[in-house]
Amino acid sequence: MTDLSKIRNFSIVAHIDHGKSTLADRLIQETGTVKDRDMKAQLLDAMDIERERGITIKANTVRIDYKADDGQDYVLNLIDTPGHVDFAYEVSRSMRAVEGSLLVVDSTQGVEAQTLANVYQAIDADHEIVPVLNKIDLPASDCDRVAEQIEDVIGIDATGALQVSAKTGQGIRETLEAIVTQLPPPKGERDAPLKAMLVDSWYDSYLGVIVLVRIIDGVLKKGDRIRMMSNNSVHPVERIGVFRPQMEMIDELGPGEIGFLTASIKQVRDTRVGDTITTEKKGCEAALPGFKPSQPVVFCGLFPVDNAEFEDLRDAISKLSLNDASFSSEMETSAALGFGFRCGFLGLLHLEVIRDRLEREYDIDLITTAPSVIYQIYMRDGTVQELHNPADMPDLTFVDHIEEPRIKATILVPDEYLGDVLKLCQDRRGMQIDLTYAGSRAMVVYDLPLNEVVFDFYDRLKSVTKGYASFDYQMIGYREDHLVKMQVLVNDEPVDALSTMVHRDRAETRGRAMVEKLKDLIPRHMFKIPIQAAIGGKVIARETLSAMRKDVTAKCYGGDVSRKKKLLDKQKAGKKKMRQFGKVDIPQEAFISALKMDG
């Protein structure tokens, strides 16, 4: 049993690449939690993709024992969180399980967009925040300027900010002391009925569902029968343990502690993140407020290249969704691509990560259709429909108007690239909300349509600012705009996989680019093929793929011209008939390349 005043629960928050996971490594190493021979870089990033891309995707937790300078023994529960905007949901969950945060800022780069987003989540959760300036071993480090920036932009007192180098280990001992002295201990009643918050859950093929919990009140013991308050299901607790980062079994978890339990739960669906866990008998009265469920923002179709792999894809998707609550999927069929799934993601990086995991962990070759967002369609009869796939657009005669999702984007950019960034946002139909300065960097706030950001906004932003801009966004709701469905016709047949929603003013340029690209991608046939982009019945762009033709007049040596003309007319009639009944084969590569438009 651990004394409440000797427990500290905290998370590490920062922008991407500011050194959260490396700092977590040093804290684990300094306290001897893991032996030096077992130590490796980014110890808490367990997935291959995390290690390869150098990013954290899942928030991970570890329990550290620390003997402070005052001779007391403390238990520190650390949660390492992702920095990327697509995984902000993981961050918000972790925040609710702890009382304080280490705010890590790179002392060479300063405050970035994601730093702001994550620190605001910590402030919302009433956290005590300790600023940490990292990377002081680099020659470009400027602690005074960055401390001033933290005070100006975020409004936190940074006079006593810790100066550390997570790489060399300088300042790590001071960080541990600051955690013990500056962060508050958790509150909780040991004698009260059990009240625990379900922070995360994932599937393990040996133990079933593993549930990460934070005990608020009461004690959780092995053999207890627990009840999930959202669905009233009851489970007997088999194992209780903590992560050091390896699993270590213990007999009980008291108030303020973070650990895991297994209770022969078969499906992750039964363990809703943010749920309250209590005992079956004499449970607590009221549930905890929980978290807002994550809302998918970007949708796209995933289809196997080989249709015979559809069942494998179905299995793979159901296993992945066990471990990732924010990923949703439903079946769909497409005339061009066969059977597949329509999947929802929190953003484009999330989409890439899921696609990589499916291809790598389950060995399936995938085709990904154009990402789209959810539109709200207001019908003339007063009903509202959600449109996930542009191919399902209802007849326009019944539609009153269409609304699209808008986001509030915060971009931090050095002064010299400001003009390019403003132009990029204007080109994407953005409306400027605010422009302020933090030192030599401009902070631009724009209201942008999500559909324009989904494609390649982030890549374009990085290229016009030579990689110096940082970007963060949040959803702000829906607004009406003049949107139309643009479809592509090949040989007068619509290709549903290439349908997209576009703004009316942009439709022509988008359509022209699409048909020009397809003209290069579709192989030539024996007859000529028209490739058209159309809105409703109106064609807005067209290219014609010329036919391969045989020289039928080769055998005529001289002679009357009418003989040649007769042969050519015969060929022309044959081509016309062929075009009527001929089928155009569009290769898979053409779909993939056409969907990577927008360059």
Automatic annotation (TrEMBL):
Gene Ontology molecular function, alphabetical: hydrolase activity; translation elongation factor activity
Membrane-protein topology: Peripheral membrane protein
Principal location: membrane
Matches recorded under CDD domains: EF4_II, EF4_III, LepA, lepA_C
Keywords: Cell membrane, Elongation factor, GTP-binding, Hydrolase, Membrane, Nucleotide-binding, Protein biosynthesis
Alphabetized SMART domains for the sequence: EFG_C
Chain ranges of the Tr-type G domain: 5-187
Entry's EC annotation: 3.6.5.n1
Catalytic activity: GTP + H2O = GDP + phosphate + H(+)
Presence of keyword Metal-binding: no
Binding-site list for GTP: D17, H18, G19, K20, S21, T22, N134, K135, I136, D137
NCBIfam families reported in the protein's UniProt record: lepA, small_GTP
Function as written in the Swiss-Prot or TrEMBL entry: Required for accurate and efficient protein synthesis under certain stress conditions. May act as a fidelity factor of the translation reaction, by catalyzing a one-codon backward translocation of tRNAs on improperly translocated ribosomes. Back-translocation proceeds from a post-translocation (POST) complex to a pre-translocation (PRE) complex, thus giving elongation factor G a second chance to translocate the tRNAs correctly. Binds to ribosomes in a GTP-dependent manner.
Name of the protein this chain belongs to: Elongation factor 4
Species this protein is from: Pseudohalocynthiibacter aestuariivivens
Organism lineage: Bacteria, Pseudomonadati, Pseudomonadota, Alphaproteobacteria, Rhodobacterales
Gene name linked to the record: lepA
